[in-house]
Batch of 2 targets.
Target 1
Amino acid sequence: MRAYWYQRRIRGLAWQALAIGGALSLGVYLITNLIGNLEHQGIASGFGFLDTSAGFGITMSLIEYSEQSSYARAFVVGLLNTILVSVLGVACATVLGFALGLGRLSSNWLVARLAQVYVETIRNIPLLLQIFFWYFLALNMLPGPRQSHALGEMIFLNNRGLYMPGLVFEPAGAWAVAGFAVWLIVFLAVRRAARTSRGLSLVLWAAGAALAFSLVVGIPTSATVPELRGFNFQGGWVLIPELVALLAALSIYTAAFIAEIVRAGIEAVPRGQVEAARALGLDWRDILRRIVIPQALRVIIPPLTNQFLNLTKNSSLAAAIAYPDLVSVFAGTVLNQTGQAVEVIAVTMAVYLLLSLTISALMNVYHWRLVRRGG
Amino acid sequence: MLATRIRMIVPMAVIACAVFAAPSLAGPTLDGVRAKGHVQCGVSQGLPGFSNPNDKGAWSGIDVDVCRAIAAAVLGDAKKVKFTPLSAKQRFTVLQSGEIDVLSRNTTWTLTRDSALGLNFAGVVYYDGQGFMVRKNLGVKSARELDGATVCINAGTTTELNAADYFRTHRMRYTPVTFEKTDEVVAAYDAGRCDVYTTDQSGIYAQRIRLKNPDAHVVLPEIISKEPLGPVVRQGDDEWFNIVRWSLFAMINAEELGVTSANVATLANSTRSPQIRRFLGVEGKMGAHLKLDAAWAARIVGQVGNYGEVFDRNLGLATTLKIARGINRLWSKGGLMYAPPIR
């Protein structure tokens, strides 16, 4: 027995088991204590509330939602809205950030200074203020529904949002769209693997054509056009000002940080590389695309991941300007109507954790492949 | 980010308290208040007439006066109150976690709040009802004409649910735009984001004076809900619950008995009415039953005033709000204000 204890590996395992056991029993104690206290104070607990009908409306929803829908559905609405603004924000911030980062390194004095002024101004103003700025700027600049700016007969812009003609998806139409998306992913993956046989390729093309045909001709969808009725435009698709303001603020703010990351990444590529490429007679476009960026990306990706995570978490500031994200709908209204703070906050935190871990994992895979490729 | 943190801190603090606190949490609030020497009172972030800070940071309003009455009864000094401004979303969690002693924040008494939240409503300070405000130039005369309207609402309120119920009942469509803070709701309505602003009617009158052009807006005649507003305490501390409830009843009884801040000092010697003598603590042991001294109610009236005085000072026709007593008159004058007798 003593001999075992003196083995380093065994001793290490014993300590780890002890630490895990301690943490677990602390957790169990805290949770039983929590349940006891909630009962003692007469506060309802458990997740039963998720089935009951929510009773409140939500401004914008990617899925079917009404006041009779359950709290669980309200949760999904909020979650999808958070994911929507995060994905769009990450895309916009990345494009803008790369452009600004390259701009800062430009040999053109004006471009470089402008990019510098942008970065120094935007990153030094609190994000919440920027969100308010864009939101109230949009509301105050745009006219009311009856004085809308019209682009032709179909598109209208006012302080309630941007109204566009939209497609109404019947359930069958939604399946067709989903099928098409799956086909696209499979097709791209197969092509990427570049081992496609003639036969398989033909099958894929045929399937794609059939799906496209069912989309266009099967008429599982109908179109609606926005139309001024009573107070406001009805029908069509609407882009609400809350989403636009939040997206603008998040993208513009995060882009300032991404610009600096891109600049640092590019400057980390040894000058000799560029000089060697120039000596080989490559033009600046090829130097950037084939020499600098592949090497810079290895440095850029890890801090870029941080910015993506920040953007996702910062999207929770949405509640301040009525964008119905997860924090606003679930950790806000649902929490208040049910009073079940512990459950609601725990779920909300778990969701943000899961979102962040997913983004991290995807970025890590990308980084790993980049490094492995030796780019 | 800071705002997010602040928003998250409150529920987190509750969780932390609930997780780490020793199993017996319901300590006597009265002892705590006496030990620290002040009443910690949860109020709104600024609602004229109910709880509103002036430019020097001094709070006033009918909800504030309820807290002052409690302080006068318990600590002998109406000034010994500290205020915690709370958003609609934070209010219950902060009370549950014990950060405040009483929540006096234009809060509607409902079944869910009274039961599932582990709270108790001590009474009604103001009988309110939800109303609508629109721009005059829309030409809307009734809430029934609001089909298709966009509505600005405060998140986490009964207002949010009442509006949904009302539009559903009358088969009308609406788009809710829901903000966390009242300031943003009002600013967005003022900027034209919504056709309608809805909240308790007293709140509508209070917020209207803050708009760019108050006269361009009209309050619709419909009242779509019952909103009895009153102070709230934690469930399970009956001693403190009694004190809060009877501090409020003392103000209402004082108005009925004709005891005012002007005559309360001399009335004890001049009156022969046993009701008033019991109220003032000259006869009986009413204070002792509440674990207070004999002059508790007299101090409330002397330092804060009776219900009528408090109403007139904060909401009445002499104020900028110009709210009529309406259903908030005493029961003996055709209103709903009725307090059980002090005997």
Target 2
Amino acid sequence: MTCKDEDAGAGGTGRGGVARFSLPGPGELFLAFLGVGLSGFGGVLPFARRMLVEQKRWLTPLEFTELLSVAQFLPGANVINLTIGIGTRFAGLAGGAAAFAGLIFMPIVIVMLLGMAYGRYGDLPFVAQGFRGLSAAAAGLVVAMAVQIAWPVLRSLRAVALALVIFLAIGALRLPLVWVLLVLVPIALLWAWHDRDD
Amino acid sequence: MTDDDPLFGLLVQLVLLSLVAIGGVNTVLPELHRLIVTEGGWMSGAEFTALYALAQSAPGPNVIFVTLLGWQLAGLGGALAATAAVCGPSFIIAYVVASLSVARGESAWFRLIRRALVPLTTGLLVASAWLLTEAAAQGWTGYLVTFVTAVVLLTTRINPLWLLAGAGGLGVAGVL
């Protein structure tokens, strides 16, 4: 979940108020991101920011926000792109790989243990009923995030029209995403270029 | 896994999907659902949403939902292959972009592309929310749980895990 992404960007200790001691190596990056992956229940990004900017002080608040805005437009999860970008910046390819591995190692182990438990006990009636409730609440998390992200974005005709068209194409008509994007991405680019001031 | 394995085709689709997953796994949930449930027939819609809920209750980035799908379809090998398929391309892209932009800041082109894509990401996310709500609800109580969860998250700063646990508890108690 990236519910709290937008609070992660700004604020903090101010532009110049951060001391940097030495650049972390791959081992240190792995361990630091291991902790972030483990603590990130319901949104990893706020924990990543706290570790990078406030605890380790590897980045200033401004640097964090700049890296995040690059990460956001790349494919893949924001926090994963950010992690790879930061690891790369500090220690090259080995750093990027170490930070990424640290971030996802424990979550993968945990989710597979949960999957194993689900495989064994998922058919029991009370477990199935529990999952009915859990699924409905998990849908609520995504609804809340969709509202949080959509609210500030849907302020121009361009944004509302494009969001509505892709929602209808994917959500209602269930068209294949690749074809929908092949049509809509060029339109979105041209429209954004045309409306440079909105 | 070999070329004849239908799961191999699914891996190729995952690689392609990961390239358009701007904003993360949540924006491609409808497409994943189409590939795995509607067209592939690999699992039921209820199982798909149950696994999504399971991934939500684990710590870490959302991409572990794909790990879990791989695990469910083909065990440990499937989990690792699915994770690599969905993370590999974006790892390469993020590495290349980070290497290129170490010296430079964000260009006007970056900003234009991001501004163009934000409405599309938003629409996809709303579609995901719609799909999950529809799939999870079995009767009005399901819609109510989804609605209350969303409202509480939007109006308080509660840890989402409490809401997941509460709704799971209501389910076990047979209320839903």
